[in-house]
Task: inverse folding
C-alpha cells in the first residue's frame, strides 16, 4: 500500500513541476526585434538578361562590287568624320560584262564562274585586281566601329554591308520578353540595368524599342515565344564595354498603399500563413492572407494593418508569451 502512495505522490510532484515550469516559461519575457509595418508604393517589374551594345548608327555599304584591300580600323575603334575606314579594289563593270558574255551569268556570278579557269582563289583575286581601280573609303559619321564583315582579299558585291559606325555615347541592351508579359511593356518605361562586370553599380535606362515580330528562343524552361525589347541607357560611362552581360529590370507599374511583408518573417502551419505580432508586451499569433507577390516580399490582403509590430525573431515563441521589444525598424519605400 505504501508503495502505491509513494508512486502517487511522485507522479503528482512531477506533474506539478512541469506545470510550474510552463507557468515560469510563459511568464518569462523574451527579447524581440520588430518591424513596424507601413503602407508602401511597390513597383511591379520584370527582369531579363542581354548584352550591352552600341546603338546602330550609320551602315557603311559598298558603292560598287570589289575586293577588300586594307581595313584600317578594328571593331570597337572610335572614328571621326573623314577618317579612313578601308581601301578596296573596285571591279571594272566592263570586265564583268565581258565575263557575262562568255558565261551567261550576271554580276559577281560571272566573276565566280570564271574561278574554274584558275588554280586557286588567290590566283583569281590576282587576275581580278588587274581590272580594278584602288579606292579609299572614309567615315561619313562620328562614332565607334562595329560589325566589320570583310577581311583582306574577300570579294563583295555592290551595296554589301561592310561595317557599321555606331553611336558611341548611346548604349543599349536588347532583351527577350515572354509573349505572356509583352502586353505590359511600352515605350518609355523606366529600367534599372546591372552588369556582372560592375556588380556594385546600377545604371538607369528606358525602353526605346519593341520588335514588330515575335521569335522562338531557347531558355531555362525550354523553347518559348519572345519579343525583343531594347533598353537604352540614360548615359554612357567609361566603365562600360560593349559585350558586357547585363540584367535589365523594367518597371511595369506601381501599386500604391500596399502592406508588404518580407518573406523571411512569414511562417506556415496547417492553419495557413501567419506571423507573430507584439501587442502590449505579448506575442500574438496572427494568420494572414497573401495577395500579390513582389520582389521583396508578399503583399498582405488580410490580417495586417499599418503600424502593426511584426516580430522578426519569433523562433520558439508561442501565443501569449511575454516579450520585450529591444529594437524597432519602421518600413520605408525601397
Result:
Amino acid at each position: 500500500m505504501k508503495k502505491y502512495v509513494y508512486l502517487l505522490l511522485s507522479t503528482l510532484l512531477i506533474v506539478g513541476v512541469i506545470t510550474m515550469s510552463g507557468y515560469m516559461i510563459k511568464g518569462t519575457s523574451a527579447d524581440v526585434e520588430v518591424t513596424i509595418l507601413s503602407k508602401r508604393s511597390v513597383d511591379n517589374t520584370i527582369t531579363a538578361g542581354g548584352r550591352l551594345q552600341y546603338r546602330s548608327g550609320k551602315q557603311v555599304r559598298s558603292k560598287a562590287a570589289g575586293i577588300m584591300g586594307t581595313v584600317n580600323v578594328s571593331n570597337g575603334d572610335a572614328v571621326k568624320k573623314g577618317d579612313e575606314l578601308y581601301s578596296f579594289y573596285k571591279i571594272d563593270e566592263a570586265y564583268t560584262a565581258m565575263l557575262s558574255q562568255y558565261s551567261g551569268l550576271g554580276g559577281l556570278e560571272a566573276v565566280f564562274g570564271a574561278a574554274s579557269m584558275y588554280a586557286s582563289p588567290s590566283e583569281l583575286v590576282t587576275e581580278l585586281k588587274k581590272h580594278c581601280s584602288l579606292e579609299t573609303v572614309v567615315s561619313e559619321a562620328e562614332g565607334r566601329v562595329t560589325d566589320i564583315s570583310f577581311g583582306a582579299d574577300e570579294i563583295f558585291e555592290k551595296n554589301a554591308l561592310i561595317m557599321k559606325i555606331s553611336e558611341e555615347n548611346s548604349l543599349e541592351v536588347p532583351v527577350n520578353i515572354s509573349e505572356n508579359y509583352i502586353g505590359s511593356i511600352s515605350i518609355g518605361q523606366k529600367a534599372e540595368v546591372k552588369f556582372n562586370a560592375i556588380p556594385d553599380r546600377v545604371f538607369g535606362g528606358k525602353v526605346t524599342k519593341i520588335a514588330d515580330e515575335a521569335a522562338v528562343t531557347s531558355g531555362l524552361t525550354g523553347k518559348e515565344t519572345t519579343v525583343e525589347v531594347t533598353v537604352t541607357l540614360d548615359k554612357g560611362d567609361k566603365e562600360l564595354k560593349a559585350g558586357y552581360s547585363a540584367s535589365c529590370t523594367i518597371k511595369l507599374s506601381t501599386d500604391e498603399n500596399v502592406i508588404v511583408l518580407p518573406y523571411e518573417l512569414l511562417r506556415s502551419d496547417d492553419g495557413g500563413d501567419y506571423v507573430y505580432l507584439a501587442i502590449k508586451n505579448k506575442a500574438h499569433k496572427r494568420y494572414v492572407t497573401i495577395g500579390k507577390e513582389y520582389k521583396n516580399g508578399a503583399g498582405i490582403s488580410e490580417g495586417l494593418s499599418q503600424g502593426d509590430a511584426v516580430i522578426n525573431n519569433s523562433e520558439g515563441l508561442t501565443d501569449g508569451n511575454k516579450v520585450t521589444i529591444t529594437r524597432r525598424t519602421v518600413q520605408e519605400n525601397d
Observations:
- Residues 1-25 have pLDDT under 50 and may be disordered.
